[in-house]
Amino acid sequence: MPSHRESIVIGRSLDDVFEYMNDVSKESEWQPQLREAEQIPPGPVEVGTRRRYVSEFMGKRLENVYVITAYEAKSRVVCETTKDAVMDATSDIRWEAVEGGTKVTMALEGKPSGALRFLPTSILEATFEKEVRGALSRLKVILEEDT
User: Fold this and answer.
1) pLDDT tens-digit profile of 71-99?
2) Nearest-angstrom CA–CA distance, 74 and 18
């Protein structure tokens, strides 16, 4: 199954980084492929919370709903797509306080369905790498400029 995992250290406190990343209304700021994002229901995040995303993936507009399947505030959030998604995907984000800031590790794993299932694994892995690396780089710039 195509996947990519990458980490970055951001020169901000764990509280600051987690608070920013946990706010679904800010996700399109640091995830360039996102066009819309909303949490269902609004309010505190917990296992079972849903997030609806409209994104651009390989030039196509996709709408997916993810369900939070693991939630440890300031430590880890795992989201998985619902059964009607165009890709069975899992996003795993972890936070760790380290010297000089916060280490953020993002992992993205997915198995395409529908027309996307014919894409070669190498293309999907390269796309995942580009998306994860781009998101982490943007996140670092945004949060470190804000200090």
Assistant:
1) 999 999 999 998 877 778 899 999 999 99
2) 6
Residue 71 burial (C-beta neighbours within 10 Å; 0-12, 13-18, 19+) = middle
Burial degree of 62 (CB within 10 A; 0-12, 13-18, 19+):
middle
Return the H-helix or E-strand segment holding 143. Answer: helix 121-145
Q: In 3D, which of 52, 54, 80, 83 has the Cα closest to residue 68?
A: 80
> What CA–CA distance (Å, rounded) separates 5 from 98?
19
Q: How many CB atoms lie within 10 A of CB 35?
A: 14
Q: Tens digit of pLDDT for each residue in 17-41? A: 999 999 999 999 999 888 999 999 9
Which one, of 127, 137, 134, lies nearest residue 59 by Cα?
127
Q: Phi/psi class of residue 136: alpha, beta or left (left: φ > 0; alpha: ψ in -120 to 50)?
A: alpha
Could you tell me which of 138, 137, 144, 133 has the C-alpha nearest to residue 101? 144
Q: Could you give the angle at the alpha carbon of 58 between the alpha carbons of 77 and 89, nearest 5°?
A: 30
